[in-house]
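Board notes, transcribed. Complex of a protein with zinc ion.
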Amino acid sequence: MTQNLKAYRAALLHSLADPAEVGVDASYEYFADGILLVENGRVVEAGAAEALLPRLKGVEVREYRDALITPGFIDTHIHYPQTGMIAAYGEQLLDWLNTYTFPTERQFADKAHAADVAGIFLKELLRNGTTTALVFGTVHKESVDAFFEAAQALDLRMIAGKVLMDRHAPDYLTDTPESGYADSKALIERWHGKGRLHYAVTPRFAPTSTPEQLELAGKLFGEYPDLYMHTHLSENRKEIEWVKELFPARKGYLDVYDHHGLIGPRAVFAHGVHLCDEECARLGETGSAVAFCPTSNLFLGSGLFDLEKLQRHGVRVGLGTDVGAGTSFSQLQSLNEAYKVMQLQGKKLDPFKSLYLATLGGARSLYLDERIGNFAAGKDADFVVLDYNATPLLSYRMQQARSLEERLFALTILGDDRVVQETFAAGRSVHQRD
Ligand code: GUN
Ligand code: ZN
């Protein structure tokens, strides 16, 4: 056994597959008294303490009482520049953008400001147990340099990109098709594939890009292996009407992106609240992903996400917070709201499906399930320790719980950042609550 080997002992839970595909019971693995073995930033093994301990003579074992270790959470849609404008009152999407978002994003022309906010943002993600996120910058290339520098210092697996936006936004916040392409390309050369960092070509949404800009974005998306494409789609009814007016030759909103090559594996569309069957089928057959952002959809009054419809068409679905339209950095709180979104439609959200959405399902949406999402041997050791006694109410509720399912469900409904006792990224402790 080498000196770098470390063991973490607590209850251990991780997803193995989508409950929708294999049924709930085969979708997870649980060890009531488990050990997660980590070496050089990677998972060596996850198993029962009874079986593993005899082989661990001389290995340091960190033990957590009344705690649950799960993989780090994966946020498939979030805006780091909007950290300081979370909880902005009173508007739906288009007015919210003009009133709050654009003036806030203007400040990111200043790299020092961007670096400050990136630091606050990453700290907040880790406090909430999120170890990987797909992140919007602003139109300024400096915003992405600042973000990646901060993520690199913590050795986090992060995906981000510079916003492309050449119309229907204030002059101070627009680029051109050519400058957007050139700036994105320079950022890709600088950051994509460096350590655990990945780049996403990031047109804000169809209304703020000309067809010329979307065409160049599509070209860029095809120029590098494993690049991401990250945008918004069918979030709000007024937005959808506007897209119809702006692109009368296209069949619908998704077709605007499709027409310009902005679809396929590693294309991630936030929201997709109002998609028709044809659009869902196209997303499914192209291997594209949709980010379900419940707190944002409720906060902006956008609508109720139809998880089952997307699932029927084989679309990869991840969970997003969409801060700052989203109201919490916590994936547990996102799952709380996701459950209510389903209830409002007369549907259920099984707690093990919730676990899957926040971990392995997110990894599959991002085509990163070879690297993260569960405790399979060789994956990045990104994990969280969740405290069953984080609050008096949670602790009392847990005393009444009769099953793992009940405990997990209560964690997703009552839990938030207070539950996250410690967060590890690539085997290093990057957040300690106490
Ligand atoms: N659509 C275009 N831009 C945005 C944004 O910043 N947030 C959300 N939620 N939707 C958008
Ligand atoms: Zn968004």
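The two ends are 31 Å apart (CA to CA). The mean pLDDT is 98.
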